[in-house]
Amino acid sequence: MSQEKQTDIDGRMKLLLRGTEAVYTTDELTRRLEEATKPLRIKYGMDPTAPDIHLGHSVVLGKLRQFQDLGHKAVLIIGDYTARIGDPSGQNTARPTLSPEQIQENAKTYFQQAGKVLDTSSGKLEIRYNSEWLAKLTMMDIIHLTAKKTVAQMLQRESFKTRLAADQDVFLHEFLYPVVQGYDSVVVEADVELGGTDQTFNCLVGRDIQRAYDQRPQIVLIMPLLVGLDGVEKMSKSKGNYVGITDTPNDMFGKIMSIPDTLMENYFTLLTDLPAERITELVDGEKTHPREAKAALAKTIVERYYDKSAAEAAADEFDRVFSSKQTPTEIPEIAVPAGTIGIIDLVVQAGFAKSNGEARRLISQNAVSIDGDKITDTEADVNPQNGQILRVGKRRFGKIVLK
RNA sequence: GGGAGUGUGCCCGAGUGGACAAAGGGAUCAGACUGUAAAUCUGACGGCGUACGCCUACGGUGGUUCGAAUCCACCCGCUCCCA
């Protein structure tokens, strides 16, 4: 092999391994890249029940994109058939069964969002529904398929093992999920499969199944779970500690600015393509002011989902509102009846407080102002004018519109 | 089928007849400070009333009691042990 090609491979490996939680195996990946005469097929399974994508999901999608950028092909599997089994990776039992229409709908939303990360040009992306082949399997096929794995092997899986140890139910059909997911790999002839840590077992079973079908086992790249904005729990919608990839640039920027400093390095590594050396510089408090580093992080991420000018604008807006303490450029309007009104009512009507008590509290905590004039008397009456700015706390603004 | 537990505010969790709108922590919100919606500190944190107050709330229903989150009965949910 030529010196150049070898350097090239080294460079690619460095990029592809970055941020990974585990790789099975690194050597195989190197070899596969070296030997490749055509684009590798990179499989990623999507769950048709969760169409709202946030930065946590984007970690794996971003890795998929890296493969695409290196000339490989993303193969997205929509688990419309497997979704009906119920993956035991979680914990509890039945998830709701989705209708074909719902699955279609979810898949559509998913692509709209995933398209912000992935390269959707036709040569780079292949989309497959696994009902295409799973619905056709006969009983005999299934018996053959399940004969490839032993019960002991299945019980290696943590969630099976612990449930069994705790005398909890493990249903037979749950064993099918990993095996069937592995069969997906056979059908699409996956060279590589990507997944989050919770998918480790399933992805690895895929290797065994492929071997059993005389295919080269796929290489498995496991990506870590992204920590949420609170710096503690994993990012998830239900925890509210997430950045949605459809969030507005300003929200995205602001939310990222709110992460603990200690989380920056992790975010840089998993959510941006900045070179490792650059990240080291940015994260080093001696070399870069933490605020600047975080702003750079936020800008890079916003740029990924929008563009450079949107990122600049979001950064300017943030400085404007929080550093210079000025009013934002865009302020949502709040409709208010004309005439004199108690300040408590005004705050409640603007939707800035859920109850009079909360409004009263905000006022007595010096949080409320109109056109910059603080109002601290909870009993004050005001006579709002069109265009005045009602502000509550640091972040909530409303432009008064009389109705 | 038998037995033992357990269910508290957005979440976790203390409380085992009155001093309980209910300790503590987390989350959230506000203020101060700052480097930012970081960190730290302070405060607020069921609803209504300016306050004494009233209402709603401790799985559900009913009961005992002057008085119940706390005791009793039944019901519902969850967990564990035995079969």
Summarize the structure.
With 403 residues, this protein is α/β, with parallel strands linked by helices.
Walkthrough of the structure:
This protein has three domains: 3-223, HUPs (Rossmann fold); 249-323, Tyrosyl-Transfer RNA Synthetase (Orthogonal Bundle); 333-402, Structural Genomics Hypothetical 15.5 Kd Protein In mrcA-pckA Intergenic Region, Chain A (Roll). The longest helix has 16 residues, at 290-305. The protein has helices at residues 3-17, 26-35, 55-69, 100-114, 131-134, 139-146, 151-154, 158-165, 176-188, 200-212, 249-257, 264-271, 276-283, 290-305, 308-323, 343-349, 356-364; strands spanning 22-24, 41-46, 73-78, 125-129, 192-196, 219-223, 333-336, 341-342, 368-370, 373-374, 381-382, 389-392, 396-402. Strand 12 (389-392) and strand 13 (396-402) form a beta hairpin. The chain has 403 residues and is of the alpha/beta class. Helix 12 runs parallel beside helix 14 (290-305) and helix 16 crosses helix 17. It is built from 17 helices and 13 strands. The N and C termini lie far apart (76 Å). It has a six-stranded mixed sheet with strand order 1-6-5-2-3-4, sandwiched between helices. Strands 7-13-12-9-10 form a five-stranded mixed sheet, covered by helices on one side. A two-stranded antiparallel ribbon has the order 8-11. It is elongated, with a radius of gyration of 26 Å. Mean pLDDT is 86; it is low at 87-95. The protein binds one RNA strand of 83 nucleotides through residues 167, 229-232, 239-240, 254-264, 289-292, 294-295, 298, 318-319, 321-323, 355-358, 360-362, 364-367, 378-379, 392-395.
